[in-house]
Each structure stands twice: as structure tokens, then as C-alpha cells.
């Protein structure tokens, strides 16, 4: 699967393409994502302003998947090239949304849709609100210089817009009015748009759930008003069908009981790793039903003790549950797509001793005053946790991101028995136990679960975390509430599991927009 960044006029979006895609598949995705008429003929350019022909596109994207593509309608190019005052590439990229584009099948102008008109109106409304209010110019200036907004400036933006909204529409604006402001934000500031959500602005206002930065700010303004209506129950029920708790195997998958008993008995006593992998594959559907049975899920490691002695079984079950391509997403995309952007974004965090230390380690730097001791990949994961810190919930009081780290990874000196550590920990949420003489070079990683240790297939920190994440799905384990935003981002944005079905906080959507735009 490929994620390709595509630009059409002032809009940038990601296009998702399956392996072996055709030129027609790409064009259809562009038409769909940008709302273009299906008969529209397109010119495609790469980031060097070179036009790409149909027979070259597949080869180019296969060789250079990070290429940014620019789409221009055929008629618009011809008009610009015939215009003596528009002879530069900048003119092509700066086409006004107000200009008329000719329809391929007609001499009549192809007029803008109502959606385009609404976006333009919303953009103008937000822009006017910022220009009329103290602090608005600073918001516009920061976006102009950085092509994004810091968390502090985003709060200024939301405060200004909610103040403007209350002034114009009262303390209880309608759903459409709130959506209009959210649409205006991502139209005026395209890089704040979430490429994975349906409308792109749900982190500012999600009408279905009544959440988002604008909704939260309004709630503060409306303290003395009645509580908002509860989110739509059917919608909540629909979005709960996601994450580790979703039974993904068909109930029609049945296996012969005698064959199952024979396989389970073999797995209990065998030490032949190749045969263990084969028998575990054969019993996968039974095992998945077992972990979703409330009366049996706690006995999974007793029924299949092979998890405790044979490496690689978590990866195999996860690949059978999804696909080998999904299973490899983190390891394949981490270094090129996510790690450098997480480090860059973390530079804007409040500069504490812990954050400074993690930044140094993430960049493979050391000094005597600041050193987290953890390697670069683990330090970057901790920075991601600081970008998506815990929020108080039903089962967890307010804790810091630094405290939440201990729910993700625990370090233990190699001279101490791992069994001693397990007796001191409670709870069903899995975590990594890192065993070594120092944190920067871990000798062994284990997944600690129900006072058992599952050996990780690889002793690199990123691969160990990869298996820790997968353990939630393989064993039907809910995410630790203190790590919910962190794990949700990993699930939807990196592994791309249950995109559009999973309830995500505005902070998760905002961070994704920043990293992917």
C-alpha cells in the first residue's frame, strides 16, 4: 500500500493506493478525494515541475513513494499557457478558486460546487474574524512562516473564533454554524487538515460526537447553560467496533475438535520451532475466538504456553489477523515518515529537563547534564507520548507523560531476576520489560502480561514496541487509559487500522495533520 501526497489548487490530500495499482485507479482516487467530475482530464506533475505521463506514473511512485504530486486540470493549463501574463509555474499553483474552469465535454464553464462556495465563504469568515481581533495577526503570521500552528497559537485561534461566534450567533450556536468555523479553519490553514478523517476538521469540531477544540471552548463559555445533548448513541456504538476488542474472525470458521486437541497437545510439549509456528497457524481461528470469550480469555497462556518460549508467534498471529503489509507498517515507515517529524514537533514542547534529555537521545546526542540513557527509537516513542499526554479518565487520575512512560516500558538491571519484578506489578495491561546493564543497549526485551514474560523476537527497542502494540490485538487487551491517545495514534496513523471507525481525540487528529501535512 502506498500513501501519496497530492496537491490540487490550494488543497493537499493523501491518496491511498493498493499495491499493483493502475493509472486509472490513481485518477479515480484523485477525482473522488478532490470532488472533481469523473470526466475531468488531468495533468500530473512531480515536485520538480516535470509532467508525468500515464506509462511513467507507476514506475515513478514505486521508485520514489515520497514524491509530492501536483494535479492541474487540462483546460486550466491551456488557458494559462495561452495567457501572456501567466508564464510561470507559480501561476499554475496559484490558480484562484474564483476562476471558471471549462468542462471537458462542453464549451460552457464548469462552475464551482456548493461545497467550494461554502469553503470559500467559511475561509473568508475566519480570516475576517482574525484580522478584526487582537492576536489574530500573530496567528496568521505564525502560519505564514511555519506552515503550521503551535499548540499555544492554536488555542489563541480557537479562543478568537469562539468569541467571534458567540458575538455573532449567541452562546448556543447551531451545529451548522460551528461546522462553518471548523471548515474555515482548515480551508484557510490547509496543513491543519486531518487527511485521515472524513471532513478533515473534526479535531476542531466533530458534529457527530459534539467534540473538538471549538466545542470544548464553547463548553467553557457556556458553564452556566444547560449541558449539551449526549452524543448520538448509534454513532457511539458504531465507533466502538474498532481497536483490540473487535472480534475480526468470522464465526463460521470452525475446526475439527480432534484436530484441535491434537495440535494443542503437540504445542504443549514440542520444542521444534518450525512445527510450533505451523501448528499455531493452524489453531489461529480457535485461539482468536478463545480470547474473545470472557470466560476463557484469561487462560490463553495456559492453553497456548508456546507464546512463553517461542519467539515470533505474536507477529504471526497479528499478520493472520490483518495482513503482512499492515504488520510491517511501523518498522517500514518509522525512520522515513514518522521519527524525524515527531522529533521536529517535539522541539516545540515545553522545555523541561526530561524533554531536553529525550531530544538529545532521539538525535543520538549525549552530554553530561542531559541523557535519558534510552536509545534513539525508544526516546522518540517517549517524545510521542509527551506530544499525546494522558488525560484524566474514569480509571486513571491525572498523571504526567513522564509517569506514563513507566506504564509503557520498565527497565531492570540484568543481575535481578525478571520473576522478582513480576511479583511487584499488578494489572492486566501489557508493558515492555527491558533487561540489561544499561538502558542504551538492552540485552533482552520481554512483554510482561499477567505475571508472565513473553520473549520478544528482536532485541531492538522499535521491534519490541512493535510486538507490544500487537499483543493488544492478539490477546484482546484494551489499551491502558493513560496511554490511550498514544496507542490510538499508533493504531490509526501508523498501522492504519480501523481508520474512520476509531474514536480519536482532537489532539490525535491535530498531531496527525501536523505530521502528514
Would you mind describing this structure in some detail?
- The chain has 517 residues and is of the alpha+beta class.
- The protein has 3 domains: 2-110, Phosphatidylinositol 3-kinase Catalytic Subunit, Chain A, domain 1 (Ubiquitin-like (UB roll)), CATH 3.10.20; 114-239, no CATH class; 326-497, no CATH class.
- 48% of the residues lie in helices and 9% in strands.
- A 4-stranded mixed β-sheet has the order 2-1-4-3. Strands 7-8-9-10 form a 4-stranded mixed β-sheet. A two-stranded antiparallel sheet has the order 5-6.
- Strand 5 and strand 6 (109-110) form a beta hairpin.
- It starts with a strand and ends with a helix.
Main attributes of the structure:
about 525 residues; alpha+beta; Ubiquitin-like (UB roll); 3 domains; 4-stranded mixed sheet; 24 helices; 10 strands; about 50% helix; about 10% strand; globular
Note the topology.
Blueprint: E1 2-8, E2 11-17, H1 23-34, E3 42-45, H2 54-63, E4 68-73, H3 74-81, H4 89-93, E5 101-102, E6 109-110, H5 114-132, H6 136-146, H7 151-169, H8 175-188, H9 213-221, H10 233-239, H11 257-269, H12 273-282, H13 284-291, H14 300-303, H15 313-321, H16 324-327, H17 329-346, H18 353-362, H19 376-387, H20 401-405, E7 409-413, H21 418-422, E8 431-436, E9 444-449, E10 452-455, H22 461-474, H23 484-494, H24 506-516
Parallel strand pairs: 1-4, 7-8
Antiparallel strand pairs: 1-2, 3-4, 5-6, 8-9, 9-10
Helix pairs in contact: 5-6, 5-8, 6-7, 7-9, 11-12, 15-22, 17-19, 18-19, 23-24
Amino acid at each position: 500500500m502506498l500513501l501519496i501526497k497530492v496537491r490540487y489548487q490550494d488543497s493537499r490530500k493523501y491518496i491511498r493506493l493498493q499495491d499493483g495499482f493502475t493509472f486509472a485507479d490513481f485518477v479515480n482516487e484523485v477525482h473522488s478525494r478532490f470532488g472533481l467530475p469523473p470526466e475531468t482530464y488531468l495533468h500530473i506533475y512531480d515536485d520538480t515541475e516535470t509532467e508525468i505521463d500515464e506509462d511513467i506514473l507507476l514506475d515513478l511512485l514505486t521508485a520514489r513513494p515520497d514524491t509530492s504530486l501536483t494535479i492541474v486540470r487540462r483546460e486550466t493549463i491551456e488557458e494559462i499557457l495561452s495567457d501572456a501574463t501567466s508564464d510561470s509555474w507559480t501561476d499554475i499553483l496559484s490558480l484562484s478558486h474564483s476562476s471558471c474552469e471549462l468542462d471537458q465535454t462542453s464549451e460552457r464553464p464548469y462552475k464551482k460546487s456548493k461545497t467550494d462556495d461554502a469553503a470559500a465563504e467559511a475561509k473568508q469568515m475566519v480570516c475576517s474574524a482574525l484580522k478584526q481581533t487582537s492576536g489574530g495577526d500573530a496567528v496568521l503570521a505564525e502560519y505564514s512562516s511555519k506552515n503550521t500552528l503551535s499548540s499555544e497559537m492554536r488555542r489563541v485561534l480557537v479562543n478568537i473564533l469562539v468569541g467571534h461566534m458567540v458575538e455573532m450567533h449567541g452562546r448556543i450556536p447551531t451545529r451548522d454554524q460551528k461546522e462553518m468555523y471548523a471548515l474555515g479553519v482548515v480551508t484557510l490553514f490547509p496543513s491543519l487538515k486531518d487527511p485521515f478523517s472524513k471532513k478533515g476538521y473534526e479535531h476542531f469540531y466533530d458534529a457527530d460526537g459534539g467534540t473538538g477544540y471549538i466545542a470544548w471552548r464553547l463548553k467553557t463559555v457556556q458553564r452556566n447553560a444547560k449541558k449539551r445533548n449526549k452524543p448520538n448513541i448509534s454513532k457511539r456504538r458504531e465507533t466502538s467496533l474498532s481497536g483490540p476488542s473487535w472480534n475480526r474472525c468470522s464465526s463460521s470458521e470452525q475446526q475439527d475438535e480432534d484436530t484441535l486437541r491434537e495440535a494443542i497437545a503437540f504445542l504443549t510439549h514440542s520444542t521444534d520451532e518450525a512445527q510450533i509456528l505451523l501448528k499455531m497457524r493452524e489453531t489461529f481461528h480457535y485461539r482468536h475466538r478463545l480470547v474473545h470469550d470472557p470466560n476463557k480469555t484469561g487462560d490463553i497462556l495456559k492453553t497456548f504456553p508456546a507464546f512463553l518460549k517461542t519467539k515470533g508467534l505474536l507477529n504471526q498471529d497479528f499478520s493472520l489477523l490483518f495482513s503482512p503489509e499492515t504488520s510491517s507498517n511501523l518498522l517500514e515507515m518509522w525512520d522515513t515518515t514518522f521519527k524525524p517529524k515527531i522529533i521536529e514537533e517535539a522541539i516545540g514542547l515545553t522545555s523541561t529537563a526530561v524533554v531536553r534529555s529525550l531530544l538529545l537521545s532521539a538525535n543520538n546526542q549525549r552530554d553530561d547534564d542531559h541523557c535519558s540513557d534510552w536509545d534513539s527509537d525508544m526516546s522518540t516513542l517517549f517524545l510521542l507520548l509527551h506530544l499525546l499526554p494522558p488525560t484524566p479518565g474514569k480509571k486513571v487520575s491525572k498523571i504526567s507523560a513522564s509517569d506514563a512512560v513507566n506504564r509503557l516500558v520498565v527497565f531492570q538491571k540484568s543481575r535481578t531476576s525478571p520473576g522478582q519484578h513480576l511479583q511487584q506489578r499488578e494489572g492486566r495491561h501489557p508493558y515492555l520489560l527491558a533487561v540489561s546493564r544499561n538502558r542504551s543497549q538492552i540485552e533482552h526485551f520481554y512483554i510482561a502480561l499477567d505475571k508472565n514474560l513473553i520473549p520478544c523476537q528482536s532485541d531492538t527497542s522499535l521491534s519490541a514496541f512493535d510486538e507490544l502494540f500487537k499483543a493488544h490485538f492478539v490477546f484482546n487487551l484494551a489499551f491502558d487509559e493513560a496511554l490511550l491517545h498514544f496507542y490510538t495514534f499508533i493504531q490509526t496513523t501508523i498501522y492504519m487500522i480501523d481508520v474512520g471507525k476509531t474514536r480519536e481525540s482532537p489532539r490525535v487528529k491535530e498531531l496527525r495533520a501536523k505530521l502528514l501535512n
